[in-house]
Amino acid sequence: MKNMADYLWVIISAMLVFLMQPGFMALETGLTRAKNSINVAIKNMSDFIVSVAAFWFVGFGLMFGESFHGVVGFSDFFVNFEQDSWKAAFFVFQAVFVGTAATIDSGAVAERAKFSTYLIMSFLTSAFIYPIFGHWAWGSAFYPDNIGWLQKLGFLDFAGSTVVHSIGGWVGLAGVIIIGPRVGRFSEDGKVNKISGHNLVFAYFGVCILFFAWFAFNAGSTLTASENIANILANTIISASFGGLTTLFVSWSFSKNRLPEPEMIINGILGGLVGITAGCNYVGEVSSMFIGIVSGLVVFFGNNLLEKLKLDDAVGAIPVHAFAGIWGTIATGIFIKKSFLAEFGFTRIHQILIQLLGSFTAFVWAFGISFILMLIINKISPMRVSRAYEEIGLNIAEHGASSSILELSNSVRKIIESRNFKDTERIEVEYGTETGELTNYFNTMIEDLKIKEEAAEEALKSLHHMAVTDGLTQIFNRKSISETLTKEIARSIRYEKKLSILMFDIDFFKKVNDEYGHLAGDKTLVEISKAVTKILREADSVGRYGGEEFLAIFPETELANAYIISNRIRETVENLVWDFDVNYRITISGGVVENFGEDYTRMIQKADNLLYYAKENGRNMIMK
Q: For tag attachment on the chain, is the N or C end more exposed, with fewer CB atoms within 10 Å?
């Protein structure tokens, strides 16, 4: 029977330990990129509700049910609380523990793990992997006679450095190996590329929540409202603080940029918390300090080891939970108070050996079984998303969810990759936030650039038009029509196509200028250009070759047809009515030739000779 104080202490502790879930969510989303943040948050929430369901179905029974030779429980499945309120309180407390173990994996494999297969592993971890080892170490926590085989040997893990944290860390290691590193994490030449999280402030906020919840995690494991709570809390806060201090100064001294790394500081704090969890009830305050210091070193150099092995742990979960968990479990044997050794009847060496056995057993069990299970799952359905999904981000790829900061990031990336901002769409603004303000600036900048781009394009079109056209007649100038003819000659020769040209000029043009003025002369050139343009086909070209002389190009046209078109031009010009003198008639003379392999100069010369022959023989005619 439990008194009301014990009930309240366990229930309140359970509610506080639940805060580890939002703590992990904030930590992991802050340490990952914005394009995956929603996915990470959903996984953190989903794995908790899956783990609670799995633990109620079968996990609680395997862990705390009536024991089969200290190996596994075989009662209390689909736990019933109607006749036992203490069992309900105990279940709630243990349920938040299994939720913690199940969520550690999410940080390790973040940003590339498929949501569906991740949930399968969360279920298996909560239903089988965690509870079975938990029975070996904590089997008698509810039924006093259900002593697990490790527990019977004297294995100590007061609040779960190994039972909770190492188990979760080893599952994460198996996932990291099977799923592989994120795209771009390691270069082909072996270089390690840092992938920074999008919100370190949010990550630090998450660690603050975890720090607070850890007090209940450790002290609540007394399962009674006893005076030991104060010592446990003191040991917890000392170890965490020295863990964080250690990684602060070690990263300051040994990191590549010789600066205190933000990620290392928070992981050092977490490492100190994990390290003290096993022995928080068995060691003193000085020992807690040493445990925290070594935990910080384990986290820092453990992270470096993973990088050398090309294992990509997105948030540092494996060094924090698996490696620091091992250290904390062994450290319990090293630093355990003599009074406890006398109570348990062991020597210090014997206790250390038992702690080593328990840590090794946890690794073999959790890593081995999860690795095998993941191999099977991966064969049936790949546990990793496609490269395309990984690149666009799991927020969109797996949930169809987005955010202003993600859309802003994607827009900037697309602009950089395509070097084009004209197709960039306006991003919805989250008013009242810094991100919204930044998004608003971005939208304004893009709109301004689009206006300037349109003006620049219009200016370029105008400049191009000026460069290729004759300023008076608005048809090709001599340079452009000559370049066009050169290209058409090359094309006709290469593809064995017909090509003809017409060279013509205005008869007695000087007389128009002399009798009616230069404005009338200009009018004549413009109207003749318009008339010729209307007659020409879409593939044909015409340009002002110089003064009153014009060149027309007829691609894929033999001489006979070119001659017909040329005479139609001559007749049209002859019938034009001029406003400066309605009775005045202007005529043209020209020469039309077909290309038979000649180059530009030779073809122009042939047409020009025929033009002068037409003039010498009476004008107002086309010679071929």
A: N
